[in-house]
């Protein structure tokens, strides 16, 4: 029985069902009773495996196909009428052409199966930030993940009423050959179509597909922003909480920063860190002129390997109940899970991520390097109370960052909003050639949105500049680099909890409470401005961390000029001017 009378919803579902031809249809109402039935069914077919109720209550294991373990950027498309609107950084196909191609792949793809109808909300249902979606899928694994990652159920349909304003998402496992895997976005139709994958980022359509690619497009049209950012609250000893939003490319420790543990010296003084979000922020100008942020998700889809009691105890604690593990090691000794970097004692009786008998003596990795946990946000010990606030939190500082061996200092502050947009637009990470310390290949990832911007990157930068005109009390914009190395290629900044020392300076600057020194690239902390109390770090090392090498930066300018060349006349004039200013400052 449909759970709504909404004509737009029902006629779209009819159309999708006529194409995919499921045997049955089931609406997900969000009740625990229904979910429990589905979990049992999935356990019956081997799609899910129930883990130890004693050690991991409510937790399940799932394995994807071995050729289906990560997001597939080369098979991800933005399908808008004009190719120019997708821009040079996205794959593009004309909507009619892509719809025709997909129609063939979806034809009868749900035969013999059930189509699950998942009404979900990104953001708290009824909040001014919330946006609604419906995902149709033939996978119980997807249903169970969406239930953790978003708000699912009847209340979403009640909030939607008879409005046609919802994001349409169709997912079918299909199981064709790899060339027929497609993750397609039709921003002009509020539609997402995913076929022939069962991996998280490709199939949990509320996440990257909706909350970033479609939402970035909506945000541009509606005057708000959808960003690939964590949201972190820092509580000082006076009990004031100040918030930052931060964007980093993959593998720069976003989840660790989002769940940071203050160093002992800070904890003793009464500092606390609160996680509002670890991956996505939706940002709006509030009635007070400040920039307000919410995390539109309801859970964490985190990388398992490397997560441990030291690197991220909060993330680990989040995964101890009601979590779905994907492609990790199954520990047969006590029916739990394991992954590389969890501890130094891999299980002796286990199955690897492919389901094959495994132990460490084989020398292969037991868990896939991109194995994941899907954990409810509510299980995170440092979750901010403001996570549940429909108004969101006010952002005082925006932080960009990347992985640079030598070029970027530990931290610097942009001179203005527009300069800050420039800093975000040229964000980059590089691969380091291990021992030699040689600088590797620079990959630019503007605002960490390269794979996630649903329209032309040049227009996106212009939108950032335009937002600056709308925000009354603008957050200050910073860049950090936790990854400076010495000549041997070893990291010289401790990172992890000690990053709070840098964030403290950032927040002090945001509230005009700290001094700074000018430099060709922006404001730097003065010697002694970063609190090193309780940390064994020589003053010379701090000098090195903050050093700006003009020769490296002149090479950086050349590299940015080449990168900017891709965007032609869509490159905002303001950003070209900022590049020239940087170039002049370095002379
Ligand atoms: C994903 O790959 O599904 C995903 C969420 O991506 P990332 O961890 O890179 O943000
Ligand atoms: Na990935
Ligand atoms: Mn991400």
Automatic annotation (TrEMBL):
User: Catalytic activity, per the record?
Assistant: oxaloacetate + GTP = phosphoenolpyruvate + GDP + CO2
Q: How is the cofactor bound?
A: Binds 1 Mn(2+) ion per subunit.
Read off the PROSITE patterns from this record. PEPCK_GTP
* TM helices/strands, residue ranges: none
Where is this chain primarily localised? Answer: cytoplasm
List residues binding GTP: 251-256, 372, 403, 496-499
Q: Where in the cell is it found?
A: Cytoplasm
Q: Which GO terms describe its molecular function?
A: GTP binding; kinase activity; manganese ion binding; phosphoenolpyruvate carboxykinase (GTP) activity
Q: Name one Pfam family in it.
A: PEPCK_GTP
Decide whether keyword Ubl conjugation is in the record: no
Cited Gene3D superfamilies = 3.90.228.20, Phosphoenolpyruvate Carboxykinase, domain 1, Phosphoenolpyruvate Carboxykinase, domain 2
Highest taxon of the lineage: Bacteria
List residues of the Phosphoenolpyruvate carboxykinase GTP-utilising N-terminal domain: 12-219
- Classification via CDD domains: PEPCK_GTP (cd00819)
Question: What UniProt keywords are attached to this protein's entry?
Answer: Cytoplasm, Decarboxylase, Gluconeogenesis, GTP-binding, Kinase, Lyase, Manganese, Metal-binding, Nucleotide-binding, Pyruvate, Transferase
Q: Does the keyword Coiled coil apply?
A: no
Q: What biological function has been recorded for the protein in this entry?
A: Catalyzes the conversion of oxaloacetate (OAA) to phosphoenolpyruvate (PEP), the rate-limiting step in the metabolic pathway that produces glucose from lactate and other precursors derived from the citric acid cycle.
Q: What is the annotated quaternary arrangement, including any partners? A: Monomer.
What name is this protein filed under? Phosphoenolpyruvate carboxykinase [GTP]
**To which species is this protein native?**
Papillibacter cinnamivorans DSM 12816
Please state the gene responsible for encoding this protein. pckG
């Amino acid at each position: 029985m449909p759970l709504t009378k909404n004509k737009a919803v029902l006629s779209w579902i009819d159309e999708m069902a006529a194409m995919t031809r499921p045997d049955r249809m089931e609406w997900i109402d969000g009740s625990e009773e229904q979910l429990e039935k589905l979990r049992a069914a999935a356990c019956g077919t081997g799609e899910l495996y129930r883990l130890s109720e004693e050690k991991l209550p409510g937790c399940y294991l799932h394995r994807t196909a071995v050729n289906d373990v990560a997001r597939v950027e080369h098979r991800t498309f933005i399908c808008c009428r004009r190719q120019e609107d997708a821009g040079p950084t996205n794959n593009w196909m004309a909507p009619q052409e892509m719809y025709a191609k997909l129609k063939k792949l979806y034809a009868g793809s749900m035969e013999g199966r059930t189509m699950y109808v998942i009404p979900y909300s990104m953001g708290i249902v009824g909040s001014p930030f919330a946006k609604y979606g419906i995902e149709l899928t033939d996978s119980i694994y997807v249903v169970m993940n969406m239930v953790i990652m978003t708000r699912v159920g009847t209340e979403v349909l009640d909030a939607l009423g008879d409005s046609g304003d919802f994001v349409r998402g169709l997912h079918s496992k299909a199981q064709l050959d790899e060339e027929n895997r497609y993750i397609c976005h039709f921003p002009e139709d509020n539609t997402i179509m995913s076929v022939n994958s069962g991996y998280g980022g490709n199939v949990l359509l509320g996440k990257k597909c909706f909350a970033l690619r479609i939402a970035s497009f909506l945000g541009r049209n509606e005057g708000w922003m959808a960003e690939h950012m964590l949201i972190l609250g820092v509580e000082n000893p006076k009990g004031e909480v100040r918030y930052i939003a931060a964007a980093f490319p993959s593998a720069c420790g976003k989840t660790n920063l989002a769940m940071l543990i203050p160093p002992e010296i800070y904890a003793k003084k009464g500092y606390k860190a609160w996680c509002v979000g670890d991956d996505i922020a939706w940002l709006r100008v509030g009635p007070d002129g400040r920039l307000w942020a919410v995390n539109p998700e309801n859970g964490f889809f985190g990388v398992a390997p490397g997560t441990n009691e030291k690197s991220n105890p909060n993330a680990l604690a989040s995964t101890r109940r009601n979590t779905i593990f994907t492609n990790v090691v199954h520990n047969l000794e006590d029916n739990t899970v394991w992954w590389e970097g969890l501890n130094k004692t891999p299980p002796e009786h286990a199955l690897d991520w492919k389901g094959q008998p495994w132990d460490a003596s084989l020398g292969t990795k037991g868990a896939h390097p991109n194995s994941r946990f899907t954990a409810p946000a509510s299980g995170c010990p440092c979750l901010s109370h403001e996570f549940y606030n429909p108004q969101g939190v006010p952002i005082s500082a925006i932080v960009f960052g990347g992985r640079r061996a030598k070029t970027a200092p530990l931290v610097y502050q942009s001179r203005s909003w527009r300069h800050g947009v420039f800093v975000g637009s040229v964000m980059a990470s590089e691969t380091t050639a291990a021992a030699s310390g040689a600088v590797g290949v620079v990959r630019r990832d503007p605002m960490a949105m390269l794979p996630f911007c649903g329209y032309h990157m040049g227009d996106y930068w212009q939108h950032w500049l335009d937002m600056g005109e709308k925000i009354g009390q603008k957050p200050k914009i910073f860049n950090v680099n936790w990854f400076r190395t010495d000549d041997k290629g070893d990291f010289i900044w401790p990172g992890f909890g000690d990053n709070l020392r840098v964030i403290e300076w950032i927040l002090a600057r945001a509230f005009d409470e700290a001094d700074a020194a000018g430099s060709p690239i922006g404001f730097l902390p003065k010697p002694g401005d970063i609190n090193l109390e309780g940390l064994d770090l020589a003053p010379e090392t701090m000098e090195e961390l903050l050093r700006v090498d003009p020769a490296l930066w002149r090479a950086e300018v050349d590299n940015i000029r080449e990168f900017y060349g891709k965007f032609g006349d869509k490159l905002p004039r303001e950003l070209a001017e900022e590049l020239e200013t940087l170039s002049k400052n370095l002379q």
